[in-house]
Amino acid sequence: MQRKKIIILDGHPAESSLSRTFAETYKDAAEKNGHDVRMVHLSEMQFDHDFGQGNYQDFKPLEPVLEQVLQDIEWSDHLVLTTPMWWGGLPAKLKGLIDRMFIPGRTFDTRNISKLGLPAPMLAGRTARVILTSDTPGWFMRLIYRQALIRQVRDQILGFVGFKPTRFTYFAGASYPKPGSVERWVSQVAKIGAAAV
């Protein structure tokens, strides 16, 4: 088995959450199988998550905590993101982290445009796993919402900067899980973490 360098981002803004439980479960399982793991918790990060009036030529300098996370991503082979779905999207602080940190010259190259008119990704060669919790049933997510958030994260965020493939694990009924559900979910995440996928 190939040893991987893994960065885990617990993307829940609260100190205690299922997202944090899944992040720590994945970390423990991956480390037991010899992988190098770094982990950050969004709840412990202090930064201005408003991109503000900046543009691609004049954006806010990254706070040290954002610079460190970006360096960890650049170091990694594999990114793991644990996050809830809130109002059909990502938590505001997590979206702010992405807005601030995924900047040109570090994650995509606006001077190198493809035939499709898209800037070249600068984080290519990396893979990702997103562990997503929600109260929306899986069938509703697929048929009614057409997996909008999954497509956004996979294609318009992670895929845009080079992560391919991005795999998803989706757990529904997260606010009031049925008896035994959390234990089954943790077991599933442990298996994913052991395989480092």
TrEMBL record:
<protein>
    <submittedName>
        <fullName>NAD(P)H dehydrogenase</fullName>
    </submittedName>
</protein>
<dbReference type="Pfam" id="PF02525">
    <property type="entry name" value="Flavodoxin_2"/>
</dbReference>
<dbReference type="InterPro" id="IPR051545">
    <property type="entry name" value="NAD(P)H_dehydrogenase_qn"/>
</dbReference>
<feature type="domain" description="Flavodoxin-like fold">
    <location>
        <begin position="4"/>
        <end position="179"/>
    </location>
</feature>
<dbReference type="InterPro" id="IPR029039">
    <property type="entry name" value="Flavoprotein-like_sf"/>
</dbReference>
<dbReference type="InterPro" id="IPR003680">
    <property type="entry name" value="Flavodoxin_fold"/>
</dbReference>
<comment type="similarity">
    <text>Belongs to the NAD(P)H dehydrogenase (quinone) family.</text>
</comment>
<dbReference type="GO" id="GO:0003955">
    <property type="term" value="F:NAD(P)H dehydrogenase (quinone) activity"/>
</dbReference>
<keyword id="KW-0560">Oxidoreductase</keyword>
<dbReference type="GO" id="GO:0005829">
    <property type="term" value="C:cytosol"/>
</dbReference>
